[in-house]
Structures are given as structure tokens and as C-alpha cells.
Write a structure and sequence with these properties.
Radius of gyration of chain B: 22 Å
Strand order of the largest sheet of chain B: 8-7-6-12
CATH superfamily of chain B: Cytochrome-c3 Hydrogenase, chain B
CATH class of chain B: Mainly Alpha
Largest sheet of chain B: 4 strands, mixed
Helix content of chain A: 25-40%
Number of domains of chain B: 1
CATH architecture of the largest domain in chain A: 3-Layer(aba) Sandwich
Strand order of the largest sheet of chain A: 2-1-3-7-9
Distance between the termini of chain A: 42 Å
Number of strands of chain B: 15
Structural class of chain A: alpha/beta
Oligomer: heterodimer
CATH class of the largest domain in chain A: Alpha Beta
Largest interface: A-B, 91 and 96 residues
Order of helices and strands of chain A: HHEHHEHEEEEHEHEHEHHHH
Structural class of chain B: alpha+beta
Largest sheet of chain A: 5 strands, parallel
CATH superfamily of the largest domain in chain A: NADH:ubiquinone oxidoreductase-like, 20kDa subunit
Number of helices of chain B: 14
Order of helices and strands of chain B: EEEHHHHHHEEHEEEEEEEHHHEEEHHHH
CATH architecture of chain B: Orthogonal Bundle
Radius of gyration of chain A: 20 Å
Shape of chain B: globular
Number of strands of chain A: 9
Helix content of chain B: 25-40%
Amino acid sequence: MQIKRRQFLKMAASLSVGFGLGGFSGPVAAALKSLDSKKIPRLIYLQGLSCTGCSISLLQSENPSPLSMITDYSQLLFHADLSAASGSLALEVVDSFISGNAGEYFLAVEGAIPEAMPEACMLGDKTFARYIEDAAKTMAGVVAIGTCATFGGIPAAEGNLTGAVSLQEFYRKRNLEPLMITLPGCPVHPDWVWHTITHIVKAGIPKLNKYASPELFFGKKVHDNCPRYHSFQEEIMAENLGDEGCLFKVGCLGPDTLADCPTRWWNGGQTWCVDANAPCIGCSAPIFAKKRDFPFYRHSHSA
Amino acid sequence: MKVKIGPVTRIEGHLNVETTIENNLVTDAHCEGEMFRGFEAFLKGRDPLDAQQITQRICGVCPYAHAIASSYAQEMAYNLEPTPNGRILHNLIQGANHLYDYLLHFYQLCALDFVDVTAIAAYKGRDPSMVQLRDWVKGELASGKAFPAAPFLPRLAGRYIDDPEINLQALKNYLDAMEIQKKANRASAIFGGKFPHATGIFPGGCTQKVSIDLIISYQSLIKETIDFYKLKYIPDVLAVAAGFPEYWNIGRSQGDFLSYGLLPFSPNPQSQRLLAAGVLSDGRVETVNFEKIMEDVKYSRYSSPSGLKVREGKLIPDPHKKSAYSWIKAPRYDGRMVEVGPAARVLVDYSSNNNQRLRELVDRYAGLAGIQPMQLNSVLGRHLCRALCGLVIGEFLLQESERLDLGSSSMAKFEVPATGEGFGATEASRGALLHYIRLKDHKIEKYECVVPTTWNCSPRDDNDQPGAMETALLSTRVENPEEQIESVRIVHSFDPCLACAVH
């Protein structure tokens, strides 16, 4: 994804000022100094057709802790699960940024958008789609949190009734091209979100792949780094669910899925799917759960 | 006058509540579920083994309950019993999920309804996380920003705890609970693969093999969580109760209670459960019969027929339906409105005289608070029931983990049959959860879910009978009709999950 210099500076400024300008290259730091240094990194986090799993995943972060992310690394102006205010008091905060001129902010979106049935997701009296569309005029950029926002995910599965689409598709249909970073995963890994934000603050925008996801996390296939790659080479294959060995024959989608789960692990480094003998179901891939005729456990009838 | 108090925050998902206020009293309430995805439509035609994965995405807060309910339903449809280890692992995973969820609910979702967050500015101690929070809040308040200390401020007008010691202790525990909930989730992820959304749960058991190191890690994490329940969580519930004793009598729902029971003692699906199943009506507990459950849609945004049984469920969305005010259907048990959730779980079990440890805890803490057991049907009652359920579950998980057999398989071998049907019922943290699956040609022909918040936040049924939360809001005195912190406290006590309710 091509990122315009002006967009980058706007984004870096809105995310960085809490830290001063240390860590930036000379030209970037010089350019940033010309921007209002009193501005602080601000985030408005909205949920569409989502299950809140990504938000819950963000609370599983270890280093930095969830508290640090709120107090040190971002200004979380609104998040439906944490905000003390509700009702019109809460909407006032959101509206003052999205429809008003309260200042620069970043939008974070968890969940897909019901393109064919906007009434299927409301925030107060307005549709969620309306908020997302209006935000394109005022936000510095947008972060798609999780597979639903990035690729449509489960709400966009074949046979869905709402016409759910990803954020990219939503904006593409309206000829809008906001600065966007996508962080897929069902749920997203907390590191992928928090480390992306801190990376932008400290070192600029990370290199993005063709889906606008940081290569840092989504540069290699799960299979490439899998601890069971050796089993694969030796053809030690699990024949049934629950067997050890390479899980390819019980449906593992590691060879088709970009993510660093095999080296990062989940829940504070406690475990990850394949370590629990569970095949990768490709939860960060564009095809995740989309097709009826492409089940997760494709050898299941003979299992 | 009519006042909408939504979008309600510090819950899961998209909920609005329209209240009618006369002379500072709530005289009417309508719960509006505002998000629809249609899981039952896109599950149709899929491979049955996709179901325990896809249904977890109904809710990222309690995904494991959906995986378990789906696994139970599939086990019945496949005529399959899990291995003994498999059933124990199901229990260990699901139980730990309850422990995390209660903590998250009381501290992150509810504490700010009672605790004064600005008290942190006066903190004099040296606890690093408290110092971090204090310095941040002070800096924010002095910054001149439009919205300082977001997302903790602004907040609704109302009375908060005024004892500085209690506030500081509660804030410290708010921060510590954020760390402890991670540990409970790490425990469940050991056997589930990751949290949220486990990949290791299947009908017939779990893919993870059991080993000493995994069991010890699990037990250690659960012990730490239980300690927090005993030393912090239960005392904090009592401290809030001491500051707001009127909430033992506020937020009483006016129907019956339903629980499907939680954590079976053996692979046999009919086996006794740690917490009992039943329908509690006028002090009498009936056996649950899924055939008595019907879902009405007179006030829900569907044009499909109303009053259908679970196995006949239909889903035709009608977003512009004139009479409708919610995406949530209105399930009724034998035509009756019921509350589900922690109070129902405890009251059904207590009235069945099932779990003696729970009975002892209820008697002790009801005695301490000076309430009758039926007053657990209240804002404070729901909070206390969660904490007590958590303690009983946690103690059971430690015993249950000792029963794992190191040499045995965690997963039964099975084949998905061409046809079959099954119900799977369990208790999610928010209450009674039912899945139904029917197979045809090895595929899902029909899948139905009746989910806890579908019951609790239901709109009126076809007989204009309101839902549990709608009745719990009635007669509440509100100081500030525009903001209604009192109503918000009632809504929060149910821990609504709208992604679940509509799905």
C-alpha cells in the first residue's frame, strides 16, 4: 500500500507526541517539529459486526500491559468496553471527533460492516456505516483490527444475510482511500496491535504487505516457521484429530496463512494452536471461514 | 418522558434501552438489540465440525461456552461420548473461562459505576501500577484537554463511594484484576490452544495431550486466580454492597429462573453436574425440557413466523418491520419469562439442594449481608452470585485436574454421520446457553442457538410480556433522568452480551 508523505506525517504526529521526537530519523523529526507538538496520540475504537474477541485479546497483552497501552502509548478516547461514559455522553466524545473538529485522531475498527443492511449495526441513532464513512473526512488514518475488519471474516461468510464487507472494501466502493493498516487474526494477537502502534511512534510505519498488514508479523507463512516442519519433512503426519506430528492431513492451513504464531505464541507465550495439536484454521487469512465447501478439517469424514 | 440510555458501554456490543420516566421513576423500559449477523443462516450447509469454531465467533468474551455447547450438541448427534480425559479437559477449559469472565465483568465493566476513579489523585503509596495511574490521571486533569483521563472520564453523574480507602483498594484491585484475568485465560489456553477462540475443543474431547507439566501450570494459574477471588473479589463485592445496600432491592426481575447446569461429572451427557439444571418457579424446581422453549418475534426485526420451537427455528430478517424494536428474539419457557445468569444458576442450584459448598457460601454471605436468598435477584445479588460461583468452580477445577489420566487419550475417535440431531446445553458465564444441530448428507441442515442475553434482554413476546431486564428496570428511582446511572447499574448487573443475544 502506497502511503503518502503528508498522511504519514499526520499519522506520526497524532501518535507520537507523548514521546517527543527521539527515535525518528533527522528529516522526519524536522518535519514533525513543524506540526503542533501539543497534540497527543488519540484513538477512537469502534465495533461493527464483531464479537469483541479482538478487544478481549488486547486485554491479554503482557509487555506492555493493557494499562500502559492506555496511559502511555495511546489516548484511548472511546472504547465501548472500557469507557465510563455511556449514552449521549459517550456519543458526544465520538461525535466531537468524527463529525466535528475536536482534533486529529486515529480510528480503530473491530468488525465488518453490513453493506447491504446498514440497520444491522447501529450506534445511537446512526448506522455504524455512517460513522465509518464520516470518519474518512476527519481521521488521520484507520487501523483495521482483526479479520472481520480486514477481510470480512465470519460475518461475511458465504450465505450471510447482511452483505458484510471489510473496511477496505467499504472504502473502495466509495472511492475513498484513507491511510489504512490492517491487522488480521481471529482474534488479533495483542502484540500485533500494540507493537504496530509503538512501531509507528518510535520508528515510523512498518513495511506493509499487499494486504496492508505489517510484514513484521505477516511476512511468513505459519508453516515456514512451524516447529513441526521437521515432522512434515520426515512425513510424520497426524492421521486423526488429536494425533501429534504435522497436522497437514487433518486440515492445517499453516501453508496458506501469513502470521508469526509459531514464533510469537499466544496468551503471554503460554501456547498456540499447533502446540495444542490443533490444526491452524487460517484465522488471519483472506479466505478464513468464507466458503461453505472449504471446511476447516477437510479430512474430517475419514478422521 | 422517554429517554434512551444507550449506547450502553462497558458491556459486550450494541445495546440501547428506551426508558419512560415519570416523577423520577422508571415506568417502562424497552431493550433494543442493535446488531445482527445471522449465524444460523451461514452455518447452514457447512461441515458440522466447522460449528464449534464458527459459533465461538458469536462471542469473543465467552467463546469457549459456545464451543462446549456445540460439542455437546454434536456428541448427541454423532452418538459419541468423549474420553474421560476429553470431558475433563472440556470442563477445565470452560471453568477457567468463567473465572476470567466474572473478574472482567466486576472490575473492568462494573467497578466504575460505584468506585470514584478520581480518588487515585490522592494516592500516597508506592505500588508501581497505582503510581503510574495516579501520575497519569493527575497529568491528564491538569492538561486542559477536552476529554482528560479518557476512557475513565467523563462519567455519569451520581453518587460514588466516598471512602478514600475503599476507593483506592478497589482501584488497586481493578488494576490487579487486569493481570489475574490473563492468568485464568492462560490456564484455559493450555488445553484450548489460545484465548479467545480455542482451536483445540472438539466433540469427543480436546486435541491437547495431557502431561504433568501442563497440569501443574494449569493448577498454579487457577490457584492464583482463586486466591484473588477469596482475598480481593468477594471482599470488594461486600464493600460495594456496604456502600450501596439499597441495591439488594433494586433490579429485581419479575419472572422465573432457568439454568442448564454446569460442568458434568462424567463423559455421560446425563451425568450430574457441579451446578444443577432446572427451571425455578415459585420456589419449585422443574426439570428442563427443551421442547417447551419457543421464540417469539412480534417485536423483533424478523418476518419469519413467531412462536417456533428451537428445532423449527427460522430466520428472515426484516430491518424495517414496523412493530419491531429489537434484533433480539423473545424466547419463553412454556410461555413464561425467565431470567438466566449467575443469580438463576445459584438460585436453581440452591433450591435443588445440589452443591453443598455453594449452599454453605450462599448462607454465609447472605447472612453477612443480612439478606434472604431470593434477594440474590437484584443488582448486588448478581454480583455476589458470580463471585461465589467462581469460587466453587475454581475449587472444583483443582480437583478435576487431578483426575486426568496421563496415559489416556484426550480425544475419542469418531466419524460424522450422514444424519442426526442433537441439543447441547450448558451455562455460559452469562447464563443458559443452548445449541441445536441437525445433519443431512453429512452437512448442517439446521443450526439454532438460544443464548443467555437473548433471554435476559429479550423484547416483549407475542403476549406483550416484557423480558427479564425490562422488568428489572421498572420502578427504579433515578436522580438524573437524562443519564440514569441507577438504570445503567441494573443493566450492567446482567452483564449483557449483545453479540450473543442476536448472533
